[in-house]
Amino acid sequence: MVSKTNTLAALCIANMLTACVDIEPSVRPFTVEVLAFTGNDPTTGAGNYALRPVELPALLSVDPMYDSIFRFVEQPNIDLDALSKLADLDQVLTSVRSAATYVPRLRDLDGTLVPRDLMSLQTVSAYAAFRTAADAIPEVTGLPRSAIIPASGLQVWVKPVFTQGAATTRMETNAFYLPYTDSFGLLDSSSLERRPIGALGPVVTHEFGHHLFHRSFTQADGVCDEDAPGGNYPGRFASDRGIAGINEGFADWTAFVIAGATNSLIDAFEPEVGNPGERAIDVRFAYATKFTYQTLARCTGDYYCVGTLFARSLFEAFLARSGEPSDRQQRMAASRNVFAAMVAAPLHMRERTWPRPDKACAAELSTAVDDEVVSGFLGAFVAGLPASDRASVCERFIANFGDTGFKAEFRGACL
Ligand SMILES: [Zn+2]
Questions:
Q1: Which residues surround ligand 1, an ion (CB under 5 A)?
Q2: Residue 317 CA to its chain's centroid (Å)
Q3: Which end of the chain has less neighbouring CB within 10 Å, N or C?
Q4: Blockwise average pLDDT, block size 10, the chain, 415 residues
């Protein structure tokens, strides 16, 4: 592939890029070796991984790397000040658009493209997971793909360079999603990682879950309007710490639905970095029972742990309805109900009058998890579920969040 793609690249330059489209299909579909998630270990619950060749039929080009949805962007320069303000995002997107499309370093071994360095392995593995997630959108959401994927596609920033004033920084570990820019990011691995976390399918699928959250709850909540009076203004809940936690839990749930993963991060970090498995959602493994809402301080993940309780509740309710975690169709059916409830939740939350928080529309999260907002969300979420799912979900919400995180006065839809 090296010599062939070099020839293609030369032709592309000679023909001002017009030749690429005509020539590349002759080498498609690409078969690429990726780090693949192979299932949850039945005794520990940890994720198993293996290097495997996979065919990537949607991938249009590897030199550079893009398909009809995803473009991998080579080290775009990102102004952190602009990134923090919704009004300045055009500047960020202009910078991303002008950056080159990333070219992974691959070697052709008997027809399989094998990554030659860690970032190349990370990008091709991430691509496989992103594409799997995008292809699953109708099953996951019940909506056509066009409702979730913007017409201009999604960008994946490979090793972005962040600037703030005169300072330049590269971040490490591991992958991220940026709402309102339709962009994901892949960062270098660091010495904290036992595995290249940004290459792991369940982690990438978790990031895609944030995009699904953005297109459901956040979109229904609205773009924040600080000039609107009172406490029920558009975007009221997006910067709330408890809702940020729910966003994380929904992302973990998405990794379960699409990838079948219940434990994305166990064993991924060195033990001193975090407690392995504390955010696992399958509580049939003993380590995943360390904290409750009342004892959140025992969890090192801050508001992420609120989300873990949410994802666990959905998972446990799925089991209680005799769901089989390895059955993709069952996972997808449960997912569509969850997604519809996420879309409806902000509307149900507004059925009551909310106090105005100290800083409306602040870019940073509120400083503490607000028990009322968490309770309000859970009650609103249940109200958006079909009647057949409510009893099982209510039972687990009450068990996991208790009287503090799911206050009795918010349980109307459970009755
Ligand atoms: Zn996340």
A1: 248, 251
A2: 22
A3: C
A4: 37 41 61 95 87 97 96 92 85 90 95 94 97 98 97 95 87 87 91 83 95 97 93 92 96 96 78 73 82 89 93 97 97 98 98 92 86 98 97 97 97 95
